[in-house]
Amino acid sequence: MSLNEADVGYNCSTSGGAAGRGALGPFGLLVLADRRLRREQTAVYFYVAKGLDGSLATHFCQDESRSSSATDIVKRVVGSAVPVLEDEATLSLRVLVDHSIVESFAQGGRSTATSRVYPTEAIYANAGVFLFNNATAARVTATKLVVHEMDSSYNHDYMAPVADI
Predict the structure, then answer these.
(1) Whether the Cβ atoms of residue 68 and residue 117 lie closer than 8 Å to each other
(2) Within 13 Å, how many C-alpha atoms sit on residue 86's CB side?
(3) pLDDT band at 54 (very low <50, low <70, confident <90, very high)
(4) How far is the C-alpha of 121 from the C-alpha of 129, rounded, in Å?
(5) According to its UniProt record, what is one Pfam family this protein matches (predicted)?
(6) Contact at 8 Å (CB) between 25 and 135?
(7) Most buried residue, 3, 52, 73, 128, by most Cβ within 10 Å?
(8) Which structural domains are found in the chain, ordered by start?
């Protein structure tokens, strides 16, 4: 598809996910991804669609279709259009990842997505985060990427001291 062609029918759920290619997307992050990007990854991404009148509509999607090698779970592509204001020059994305939860916020929370995924290979030290751009007619630049690692929330057994009576 060239940049001059309209892409009005884009829908996250029926698009085929992050592996598809369009003039203006998809582009975003691969989280809980195995280090070689061969088997497991959960994509969190934007897709910009061009309307017949030349207007742009931004979609925010989360693709679970390659989130796990397990075959007995439901894997979906979810998302929706996300409002981008005229004075906003950049797209913003905040993604929180736990061992099996991916919670994402686009444009300051105007659109959100939460997935429960079941990775079997992309776990612990074998899980990575990658940037990707599958757009065919757009160059995308990440101007800021901040990664925070949280401490474990493992709860230890606690025995209250017994009072002497």
Answers:
(1) yes
(2) 1
(3) confident
(4) 14
(5) Glyco_hydro_32C
(6) yes
(7) 128
(8) 27-133 (2.60.120.560)
